[in-house]
Amino acid sequence: MSTSRTKDKYNIAVIPGDGIGKEVMQATISVLDELDIDFDYVYGEAGDECGEKTGTPLPKETLDIIRNADACLFGAAGESAADVIVKIRQEMKMFANLRPIKSYPNTNALFDDVDFMIVRENTEGLYIANQEKLTEDGAIAKRIITKKAEKRIIDYAFDYARDNNKSKVTAVHKANVLKKSDGLFKKIFYEEAENYPEIETEDFYVDATAMYLITQPQNFEVIVTTNLFGDILSDEGAGLVGGLGLIPSANIGKDGALFEPVHGSAPDIAGEGKANPIAMMLSAIMMLRYIGENDAADKFDAAILKVLDEGKTLTSDLGGSASTMEVAEAIKNNL
Ligand code: NAI
Ligand code: MG
To answer: What residue's CA is closest to ligand 1, atom 30?
Structure first.
């Protein structure tokens, strides 16, 4: 991620989407507006409601808005999520999926000192579109590992570690069984590591990693892994630190970046004004760091931490009774 301010004014694509996506986006924008940064928001439609209204859940105009922006904030889609968010990632070639796993006070975190980043390859592995086939005996899925894509994600993980004062990168694979594909991933990992002599390296099998995440999560700083393993381990990580209302993510490519909470549109609580906005806000903080606004990111982050620490203004998922906008107000008062 970049480390210093890149522009005087930023063009930000804002896609609230469905359900609580709209509510957490409104709360987040209200805090961003207090940060003294010149943002030009361009709103785009996507999701179930948009599909009903326009005939498609992801209109071409929305993709163009994302293409022309410095970065995109995305709330959540509903049932059309696969046709919206997965399609945006593919169209924009957002190859890196970043999922920070960090414990915050007054949450349901299992440990109070977890802080690591999962860097997941987002374009190949076992999740390539239209590559599953029915056969006479059953079905076959293909798993693709290319040198180009794996080198790109591994370099991204090392660069991330170097730029964010992390001292170690852990590669996660299953090279004992998937000897050719994950053997290649592991080989590339150690080849690229030579370009980063100041960063410590280690590698684990994915099954062992699933256990270590529970027994010694403090060991991890940056994990780099292939698509499916990253998907599974990052949800395990979410469970470690207390749930969906707190987990942000980033999708990053050469030509664009999109920041979104990991949660969906939450139809069970949508419209009640009680969704936790913090996952969306932490996603916006990742965006601030991506565009180089690190001071604003630190300030926003500290204000969230203060509100969580005080434990007075929390939404119901964290055991409180505050509304989405009350949490936003409390955070603004602590900036
Ligand atoms: P979900 O994340 O929307 O909700 C799961 C549970 O967590 C619900 O009980 C919900 O109330 C709660 N929850 C989620 N976020 C919360 C927040 N910020 N504050 C308080 N509670 C929160 O996942 P679910 O129920 O599996 O899916 C609902 C819809 O969302 C589906 O239509 C699904 O396709 C879509 N979805 C979209 C995603 C996206 O746009 N990236 C990701 C995941 C699901
Ligand atoms: Mg997942």
So the answer is: 264
